[in-house]
Design a protein that fits this description.
- The complex is a heterodimer of chains A (109) and B (181).
- Chain A has 6 helices and 3 strands, in the order ααβααββαα.
- Chain A is an alpha+beta fold and 109 residues long.
- Chain A has a single domain, classed as Winged helix-like DNA-binding domain superfamily/Winged helix DNA-binding domain (Arc Repressor Mutant, subunit A), CATH 1.10.10.10.
- A 3-stranded antiparallel β-sheet of chain A has the order 1-3-2.
- In chain A, strand 2 (53-58) and strand 3 (61-66) form a beta hairpin.
- The longest helix of chain A is centred in the last third of the chain and has 15 residues, at 71-85.
- With 181 residues, chain B is an alpha+beta fold.
- Chain B has 2 domains: 10-116, Beta Polymerase, domain 2, CATH 3.30.460.40; 119-180.
- Helix content of chain B is 47%, strand content 18%.
- In chain B, the strands form 3 sheets. In chain B, strands 1-2-5-4-3 form a 5-stranded mixed β-sheet.
- In chain B, helix 4 (118-132) packs parallel to helix 6 (152-162).
- The relative contact order of chain B is 0.15.
- The chains are: A alpha+beta (109), B alpha+beta (181).
- The interface between A and B is medium-sized, with 17 and 19 residues.
């Protein structure tokens, strides 16, 4: 449904990714969904320009997270969370269950 | 001494290690993925056994050597007959910002396992979900809560101190969905 509201699959996936993982960069979001980084990057820039996201450089990447100073972001995230919770289990497992807990260097995966 | 073979489950392996360490007067408490595996009857699989311990690594190594474990770096051990990796993350034992000073003793045929309780493990997984945005930890918290009675007051007191009320509500909704499915 969000795709219709937001106008593109890339926008929907970018926002759902950020709702699920809290932050992300174009390469990781694009790789998760098998999309091109430029498509995602365009969405991230648009969302940052609109005051929805903020970004900071980390190494060679630009990491995007929520602009918590924007009062509308909380409401947007509520809608995204409801959307995430009604996704089919297959999609949840495929896209939204990447490990984020730290893992000591040298420990086998 | 109980031998370690290829087919030992995480539960059996944890019991053998825990019993051996306790016999040597050493404290180490099972946490992490292996504890989740035990509390979910294997619905979650882990290749690690993480025992949080403030003991000197040389003492742990000496106690485990007769079982056939060798130290392969840092606080990490392997056994030639087992695919599981054993690690001793240093203490203090805590779930999020809450220090843990008492835990469960799980009695098994091969010995007693010192292990975080189901309630503490749910808090531990929720801490990872809250602080690291780790979605698999949410699933693991749900799996444990489905199978065990929790001390909900302790969980809610902890959440109010830890922060993460929204994540906690996400967890409760996920648990309700899992329970009604």
């Amino acid at each position: 449904m969000l795709e219709a509201v937001l106008g593109s699959v890339a926008a929907e996936r970018t926002l759902l990714y950020l709702q699920n993982y809290g932050e992300g960069y174009a390469g990781s979001i694009a790789e998760t969904f098998g999309m091109s980084p430029s498509q995602i990057s365009k969405q991230l820039t648009k969302l940052e320009n609109g005051g929805v996201l903020v970004s900071r450089p980390v190494g060679r990447a630009r990491v995007y997270s929520w602009n918590t100073r924007n009062p509308l972001v909380k409401e947007l995230r509520r809608l995204l969370q409801v959307t995430l919770e009604v996704l089919p289990e297959g999609q949840i497992q495929q896209y939204y269950r990447q490990r984020r807990r730290p893992r000591r260097k040298g420990k086998p995966d | 001494m109980t031998s370690i073979t290829q087919h030992r489950s995480p539960l059996e392996l944890a019991a053998i290690i825990s019993k051996t360490l306790e016999g040597a007067g050493l404290t180490a408490v099972l946490s992490g993925g292996a504890a989740v595996s035990i509390y979910t009857d294997g619905r979650y699989e882990s290749s690690d056994l993480d025992f949080v311990s403030s003991e000197q690594i040389s003492k742990l190594a000496a106690a485990l050597a007769p079982l056939g474990f060798t130290q392969t770096g840092g606080r990490h051990f392997e056994h030639p007959n087992s695919d599981y990796y054993v690690e001793f993350p240093p203490g203090p034992l805590a779930v999020g910002g809450l220090p843990i000073t008492a835990w469960d003793r799980l009695h098994t045929d091969l010995g007693v396992i010192q292990v975080l309780s189901p309630t503490q493990m749910v808090m531990d997984r929720l801490a990872a979900f809250i602080h690291w945005n780790d979605p698999p930890s949410l699933d693991q918290a749900v799996l444990i809560a489905q199978k065990h009675s929790l001390d909900w007051k302790s969980v809610e007191d902890w959440i109010s101190r830890e922060g993460g009320q929204e994540e906690y509500e996400t967890f409760r909704r996920a648990l309700r969905r899992a329970t009604t499915d």
